[in-house]
């Protein structure tokens, strides 16, 4: 049952509504009595309220004094905690044995996003457009080599009228609306692209196709240069990461020369023993990319993604513009550390 | 006039100023180019004619023939010596040239007249192919072996086997926890399995989590703790589990009660998943490890899902039919006849059609179900037969 007491704000409202600055009272010979409005208000309260008033509703004094500021610091507004945000864990592995080591926590805003095929489609199309060379070129009739001489008279020949021989109607002429070099890039909002990036990683995580390595995946030094390619192939086939199982993408922070060599090694044999300077880092069974080179399509293309822990953090931190500052990875980790302490 | 060389002629004309003859520019240039301080001297011609020299180079002369024979004889003697010293049981000698950084095998010298057991190959099967890129790569490869944590061959287990294996691993984990040892010791390489000891353990959910029967410090528990090493002494070859893991009559705890055993600790989940990967080569997905609250979640990720025979029988469509009030799931295409039967009108329709001597389903047209002969040559004849009919 609702309380019948007038609450404090209502009480103050009554005070403010009915109060005006009273002039100093001039005592007169008449009987002293309270002001008429106070009498009416009090009569109403007495009639309707059953609780004991703590003090008179109307008081003959100035309006409610502004309370002094509280000594404690005013708390900044903090929004209530989002109940949909969870924490999930991903296993870290050693390289090259791929032994599970520990569980790393990540927020659901980064690795537990729901599948949004439309966003992934937009991101992949945007990347494809940006990668287009756009170098198709044809000659317009003004660019075709030749003079502008009218090749036959306007009238009298019995054939159609023709101007110069560069007309697109003629063989050897220019192209009417042919392609010209242009930029095929389309725009995509950074926030949408970042959300698509994290959606792709979440998709891989949900399917168990995201493997995190605790350290940089380097081929051990004890493996000689001539054995690296075969040893790497053995590693991929042993762990079912190779071509029969959909191939694997290795993601690292920096270019790891031993890994790149192992995947498409330098040719150190041959007639002149020449070394090829730039290695592709891609073989029939796997591909290696750095964080700067990878895009959403690469994350979705191959059978699984094996990523270095530092590279995963760098990717996630570089694609969280759609999140509030408090939801980003760094802030989330600081919050987790504070909670755990 | 004596025969003069062209340059001399030009020089003579140029020098003879009295004649005042014209010397062309070309001649002057030629003269400048062909200035010689001395006349060229040619090598003395051989005293033998050309044909003689040709014949001697092809057929040999009295000097060259014996010298060549001598050289051939010396080479033949060297080859025969090498062939005589050939021993098929000994490995080939290898030498390292000064300008190379690897060893080369010295090929054996075989003389069929001496090494009579030698038979030259008539095909290239099993002969070493030398000189390709693959050959070069194989030579450079030192043959280091890769060793992974998980076994290469995945164990193919039935759902009962997964149940047994999970029971064994969970019991081991709980025993370790109860004994105060680290759960990480679960995957330390060990020499023997503990299936016979863990089979008798029953896991019951207790007030504070799980209770295990038999109680602590029982004989079976001691055996389990002894089987699990406390230190990682080195990789022991643990073979991939083969079926059957546990015989049905061993009395393994079955039923859903122990599957509800709580797994609150992420470390415990990881240790169990790691042990399963170590034994079977199967990896449990990370979302399952992270979100698993009981053993049943882990078992669901491991066991084989039976493929339902019909799409309508799948769990997804069955749940749609139950949850949504305006959706019905049928295993067969719903025809007009099904709808009429549902309403109750079909028997009336059927009776009426029979009364009028009309076909209830299909029709009675003779060519309504023509079977076309697969041989194209018969098509025309069949069609004519149909037309005649």
UniProtKB/TrEMBL annotation, chain A:
GO terms for cellular component: ribonucleoprotein complex; ribosome. It holds the Pfam family Ribosomal_L4. Residues 1-36, 55-88, 127-178 are annotated as: Disordered. Keywords: Ribonucleoprotein, Ribosomal protein. GO terms for biological process: translation. Belongs to the universal ribosomal protein uL4 family. This is Large ribosomal subunit protein uL4m. It comes from Extremus antarcticus. The gene is yml6.
From TrEMBL, chain B:
InterPro entries: Ribosomal_m50. GO terms for cellular component: mitochondrion; ribonucleoprotein complex; ribosome. The keyword Ribonucleoprotein applies. The keyword Mitochondrion applies. It comes from the Eukaryota. It is found in: Mitochondrion. Its main location: mitochondrion. Residues 68-81 have a biased composition (Basic and acidic residues). Keywords: Mitochondrion, Ribonucleoprotein, Ribosomal protein. Residues 57-98, 365-389 are annotated as: Disordered. Belongs to the mitochondrion-specific ribosomal protein mL50 family. This is Large ribosomal subunit protein mL50. It comes from Extremus antarcticus.
């Amino acid at each position: 049952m609702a309380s019948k007491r007038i609450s404090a704000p209502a009480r103050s409202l009554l005070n403010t509504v009915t109060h005006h600055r009273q002039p100093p009272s001039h005592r007169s010979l008449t009987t002293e009595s309270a002001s008429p409005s106070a009498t009416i208000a009090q009569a109403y309260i007495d009639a309707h309220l059953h609780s004991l008033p703590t003090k008179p509703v109307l008081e003959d004094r100035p309006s409610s004094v502004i309370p002094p500021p509280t000594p404690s610091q005013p708390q900044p507004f903090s929004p209530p905690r989002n109940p949909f945000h969870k924490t999930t864990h991903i296993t870290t592995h050693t390289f090259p044995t791929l032994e599970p080591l520990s569980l790393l926590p990540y927020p659901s805003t980064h690795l537990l996003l729901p599948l949004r095929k439309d966003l992934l489609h937009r991101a992949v199309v945007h990347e494809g457009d940006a990668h287009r060379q756009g170098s198709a070129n044809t000659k317009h009739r003004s660019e075709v080599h030749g003079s502008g001489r009218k090749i036959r008279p306007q009238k009298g020949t019995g054939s159609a009228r023709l101007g110069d021989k560069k007309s697109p109607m003629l063989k050897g002429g220019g192209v009417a609306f042919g392609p010209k070099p242009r930029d095929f890039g389309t725009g995509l909002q950074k926030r949408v692209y970042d959300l698509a990036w994290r959606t792709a990683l979440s998709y891989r995580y949900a399917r168990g196709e995201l493997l995190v390595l605790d350290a940089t995946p380097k081929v051990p030094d004890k493996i000689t240069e001539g054995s690296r390619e075969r040893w790497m192939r053995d590693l991929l086939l042993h762990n079912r990461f190779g071509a029969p199982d959909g191939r694997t993408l290795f993601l690292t922070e920096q270019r790891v020369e031993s890994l790149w060599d192992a995947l498409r090694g330098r040719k150190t044999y041959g007639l002149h023993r020449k070394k090829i300077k730039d290695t592709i880092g891609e073989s029939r069974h796997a591909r290696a990319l750095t964080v700067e080179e990878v895009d959403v399509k690469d994350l979705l293309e191959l059978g699984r993604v094996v990523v270095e822990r530092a590279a995963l953090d760098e990717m996630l931190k570089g694609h969280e513009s759609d999140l509030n500052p408090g939801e980003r990875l760094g802030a989330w980790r600081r919050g987790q550390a504070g909670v755990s302490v | 006039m004596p025969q003069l060389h062209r340059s001399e002629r030009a020089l003579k004309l140029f020098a003879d100023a009295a004649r005042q003859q014209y010397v062309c520019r070309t001649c002057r240039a030629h003269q400048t180019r062909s200035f010689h301080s001395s006349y060229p001297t040619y090598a003395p011609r051989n005293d033998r004619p050309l044909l003689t020299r040709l014949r001697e180079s092809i057929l040999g002369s009295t000097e060259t023939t014996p010298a060549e024979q001598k050289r051939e004889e010396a080479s033949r003697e060297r080859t025969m010596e090498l062939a005589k010293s050939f021993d098929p049981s000994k490995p080939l000698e290898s030498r390292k040239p000064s300008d190379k950084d690897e060893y080369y095998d010295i090929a054996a010298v075989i003389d069929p007249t001496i090494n009579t057991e030698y038979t030259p190959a008539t095909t290239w099967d099993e002969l070493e192919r030398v000189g390709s890129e693959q050959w070069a790569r194989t030579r450079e490869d030192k043959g280091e072996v890769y060793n992974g944590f998980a076994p290469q061959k995945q164990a193919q287990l039935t759902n009962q086997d997964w149940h047994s294996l999970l029971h064994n691993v969970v019991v081991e984990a709980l025993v370790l926890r109860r004994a105060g040892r680290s759960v990480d010791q679960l995957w330390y390489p060990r020499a023997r399995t503990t299936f016979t000891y863990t089979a008798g353990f029953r896991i019951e959910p207790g007030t504070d989590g799980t209770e295990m029967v038999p109680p602590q410090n029982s004989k079976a528990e001691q055996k389990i703790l002894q089987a699990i090493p406390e230190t990682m002494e080195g990789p022991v070859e643990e073979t991939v589990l083969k079926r059957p893991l546990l015989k049905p009559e061993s009395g393994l705890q079955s039923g859903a009660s122990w599957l509800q055993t709580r797994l609150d600790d992420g470390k415990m989940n990881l240790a169990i998943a790691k042990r399963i990967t170590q034994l079977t080569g199967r990896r449990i997905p990370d979302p399952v490890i992270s979100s698993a609250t009981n053993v049943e979640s882990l078992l669901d990720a491991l066991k084989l899902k039976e493929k339902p025979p019909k799409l309508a029988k799948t769990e997804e469509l069955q749940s749609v039919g139950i949850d949504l009030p305006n959706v019905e799931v049928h295993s067969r295409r719903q025809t007009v006849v099904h709808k009429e039967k549902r309403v109750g009108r079909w028997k009336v329709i059927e009776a009426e059609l029979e009364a009028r001597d009309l076909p209830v389903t299909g029709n009675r047209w003779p060519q309504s179900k023509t079977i076309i002969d697969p041989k194209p040559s018969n098509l025309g004849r069949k069609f004519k037969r149909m037309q005649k009919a």
